[in-house]
Request: fold
Amino acid sequence: MHTHRHRPHINLRLERWHRRAIYVSLAALLLSGATWLLARYFLRPMTEYGEMVHPLEPLAMKLHGGAAMIVLFFLGSLMNAHIRRAIKAGRNLVTGWSMIALMVTLIASGFGLYYLAGDGDRVIWSIVHWTIGLAGAGLFVLHVVLGRRSVT
Reply:
């Protein structure tokens, strides 16, 4: 005779301060990256000496690096408070594992841009990084929406 094991409900909802800190730090990361993209590809002034760097580019890059450090801190804070328990509960695993894969790829490509990319391959590293970063915003929203639906 088979007995059905019922999994106990595991609360995966973060405390309000934690959730808001993650939302704000991810928004800062997205906005600083998008600002860099706009400045780099659409706002560069053309002068008699050729195309010049827009003043927002270095500022946006510095803000993006700072926001990345804060996001990494909060990503670490999610390991026990959210990720480990979600895996144990078997909830929202497709978008959760997708978020983990996306963040690992962003961390690796960000590291590559900072430490490994040369003049010849920097554009490729950059395109990979910002394409995945922009897609990540949509995946994050999907993860939150599906996670909230799985509770009700």
